[in-house]
Amino acid sequence: MNHLRVGKVPPEILSNLLGRYPCHDPSVVVGPGVGEDAAVIEFGEKLLVAKADPITFATDAIGWYAVNVNANDIAAMGATPRWFLPTLLLPEGQTDATLVESLFSQIHAACDALGVHVVGGHTEITYDIERVIVAGQMLGETTRDRLVTTGGARVGDDIVITKGIAIEGTSIIAREKADDLRTRGVPEQMLDRSKAFIVDPGISVVRDAKIALKVGGAHCMHDPTEGGIATGLREIAEAAQVGMDVDADAIPVLPESLKLCNTLDLCPYGLIASGCLLIACAPNCTAAIISALWAEGIASAHIGRVCQQEVGLRWIVAGKEQPFPAFPVDEIARLFG
Question: In a designed cystine with 146, which of 78, 105, 124, 237 is the match (CB 3.0 to 4.6 A)?
Fold first, then answer.
């Protein structure tokens, strides 16, 4: 038997299963699909947007990660995150009241920062796990005129990215592998900056999405997570049935991310990437969106354009096409496998 590797189920398997087990509820506006960030359901005059996502690599600040990662997917659909339900699975023999209180504190602090309310969930101590796992469900709301989907990218759109890639991965690595990185010569000051990536530049893209929506012209927004920026771009292409020209030299990689990746022989393009938002927008809106983001202190860059599907995915480095990066498993999984 060929066992699957750590990380997301391969997209070809997932796509096949989703095709075999479709959702037939007519009230579902956006159902399960490879690359789509959340489900969208008709709910009276508004649309209910629902997302479920676990945190499986991080242990430190795991509650903060859980809230923000789920809120990002709601915001990427053009919705406002409103309600959160966490499921906390705690290891037998390692859990005390202090740990439980710490998790609750992290979750509520992250929710307070976003205006989200914790409305339920589940907490249990269970056997056969070695570390805390937090699975979150975030609910939000929007209207049809504000709804944005991953599959909404259009041929001719520009591709914009906010902040920089591998922000979440950089923070997790610095927090979980600090001793190893010190041994390999990474300065303490750089480790401290990398750990702080969780809040600065931050793993939340809720503000990024709001700004893009306010300017207008965004046809697609996507929050790349496991598999990094390369996988996030592939997910857009698959969901929208389009091709892409991507200028790899224009993709912002923060110095700390590059240093940690080089030290551990990881590729930043395949490292878990919450903190950046991918936007496919009308070309006549690109400059306005980028300008509005920078005006609010959010770095952004134009990194490519959407093409016809038959063009495929083209990765351009120094003006020459190279094979488009593929990461069946997130780079961070190689550190925890």
Answer: 78
